Amino acid sequence: MVELRNSSNNRGFYVRMRLSHKQARQQEKNTLFKYYKWVLWFFLTLYFFTSYLISHKPNPISKPHVVTSKSAMAFRALVDSTNSTFSKYPRRDNNDDPLKGLKIYVYDLPSKYNSDWLSNERCSNHLFASEVAIHKALLNSDVRSFDPYEADFFFVPVYVSCNFSTVNGFPAIGHARSLLASAVEIISSIHPFWNRSRGSDHVFVASHDYGACFHAMEDRAIADGIPEFMKNSIILQTFGVKYKHPCQDVENVVIPPYISPVSVQNTLEKAPANGRRDIWVFFRGKMEVNPKNVSGRYYSKKVRTVIWRKYSSDRRFYLQRHRYAGYQSEIVRSVFCLCPLGWAPWSPRLVESVVLGCVPVIIADGIRLPFPTAVRWSQISLTVAEKDVGKLSSILEHVGATNLTAIQRNLWDPATRRALLFNDTIQEGDATWQILHALAKRLDRSVGVSSQ
Ligand SMILES: *[C@@H]1O[C@H](CO)[C@@H](O)[C@H](O)[C@H]1NC(C)=O
Ligand SMILES: *[C@@H]1O[C@H](CO)[C@@H](O)[C@H](O)[C@H]1NC(C)=O
Ligand SMILES: *[C@@H]1O[C@H](CO)[C@@H](O)[C@H](O)[C@H]1NC(C)=O
Ligand SMILES: *[C@@H]1O[C@H](CO)[C@@H](O)[C@H](O)[C@H]1NC(C)=O
Ligand SMILES: *[C@@H]1O[C@H](CO)[C@@H](O)[C@H](O)[C@H]1NC(C)=O
Ligand SMILES: *[C@@H]1O[C@H](CO)[C@@H](O)[C@H](O)[C@H]1NC(C)=O
């Protein structure tokens, strides 16, 4: 209302201004009028002449409409290649759509880069499987564009985590760099888009301990670094810390580790998130009783060892060191779920705790958590400094006596659960949607800044 009134006031002012200038301009107008008819005639002729040329091409063979749009594409490609700043991300005016009309082109790579690996069922279900889930979700989504010339981003679907070791069953990611490098070689030789932007509008998933450094041990990961060819691109990665780190020195979006939504649904069908919780503190996982100093580092920086030594005889702590397939049924029975660092700060426990309604107790200094605008982490979790892990029981007792109920109420908001799970077809607010939202925000930024 206020704005409306202001603008009509302004117009009144404008009209008054014009009236006072009217006489002064009268003379000027009379001279202009002499030429006015000729000017009008000239422009009308020009207009009709050009529209004739456009609708009647000199070429006698009338070509289908497609050709016109192709030549428009070729023109755009030309503009793009000569001035990438200008049109790397086209401007969007759709303010209602939170995804801003985002368009993503998904490369069609030979099956050895992706679908062949799916013959092993584990490939689409283990903790690094977001590389599969995001690809699947994009293939069926509205943001997928089949016209690469109108795409804002290019998704490179390479599954690097499904070569499971025959020794210990863990994903062997030693081949990740060469597999990705050869995929980039293919796309950059067939299509112009990689060279056009030097990969900067290309998106990869690197869902490993240290993201695109592709190694589980931090010192090795840092020594190897991010492959040179990926350094301009956007990496979707589970790894994130609040301080400078060579393995996140690249445009990145922190994403949640993959937890199968079906497994969560099955667990919740048997025991609802707001049901009875008879375990006070839960942790199941690798715990070195006497941690080895591997290449100058202790597993979990000894945090898990301290937890074990201090609390394994405390009956309120349910601590287990061995794998158990049904562990989700234990999480849904627990009040607090410990999420200490392992080799890397992040862990799938974080997602499992949240989606199964157990308050995550994050013990990983400086960790950067996924989707901070969608998930109010400070309202749904507890953070305990690594050095304070010995005081765990008194910290949790204090929370239990004060704000536990408030934290649980926030935690059981279904929107939070949705944001951390990858649905096969994108649902508004789910994990893939949050990624698209983060990418769409980058469109704003590059339109706004439009330099460099
Ligand atoms: C690219 O486009 C921008 C914005 O239109 C312009 O300022 C700049 O001079 C152009 N650069 C080149 C190399 O054409
Ligand atoms: C899978 O990993 C093994 C080593 O664990 C390696 O020898 C093999 O070449 C890898 N396979 C592919 C297809 O990269
Ligand atoms: C992109 O650049 C590479 C290396 O300079 C070159 O080999 C390749 O042919 C280029 N791709 C296209 C489509 O021009
Ligand atoms: C995806 O979302 C739909 C609708 O919310 C739901 O019916 C379906 O079970 C979900 N799929 C998975 C795999 O969770
Ligand atoms: C761990 O081992 C490295 C050598 O591998 C050594 O330099 C370092 O001092 C050891 N750390 C501790 C705490 O013992
Ligand atoms: C609950 O209390 C703890 C410790 O007193 C505090 O760190 C945390 O921020 C509180 N959380 C909420 C959601 O009030």
Explained architecture:
With 452 residues, the chain is of the alpha/beta class. The chain contains 16 helices and 12 strands. It has helices at residues 2-55, 65-82, 84-87, 130-139, 176-190, 193-197, 218-224, 261-270, 303-311, 327-331, 348-355, 377-380, 392-401, 404-411, 414-419, 431-449; strands spanning 104-106, 153-155, 202-206, 234-237, 251-254, 279-284, 293-294, 297-298, 317-320, 334-340, 359-363, 382-383. Strands 1-2-3-4-5 form a 5-stranded parallel sheet, with helices on one face. A hairpin with a 2-residue loop joins strand 7 (293-294) and strand 8. 35% of the residues are buried. The model is unreliable at 1-25, 52-89 and 447-452 (pLDDT under 50). Bound molecules: 2-acetamido-2-deoxy-beta-D-glucopyranose (6 copies). One 2-acetamido-2-deoxy-beta-D-glucopyranose binds at residues 188-189, 192, 195. It is a single-pass type II membrane protein.
Largest sheet: 5 strands, parallel
The general outline is globular
Q: What are the bound molecules?
A: 2-acetamido-2-deoxy-beta-D-glucopyranose
- Please report the distance between the alpha carbons of the first and last residues: 40 Å
SS field, number of helical segments = 16
Order of H and E elements: HHHEHEHHEHEEHEEEHEHEHEHEHHHH
Total strands: the figure is 12
Residues in helix, %: 40-55%
Spatial strand sequence of the major β-sheet: 1-2-3-4-5
Radius of gyration, taken over Cα atoms and rounded to an integer in Å: 29 Å
Poorly predicted parts? 1-25, 52-89, 447-452
Structural domain count: 2
Q: How much strand?
A: 5-15%
Average residue pLDDT: 83
Going by helix content, strand content and strand pairing, the class is alpha/beta
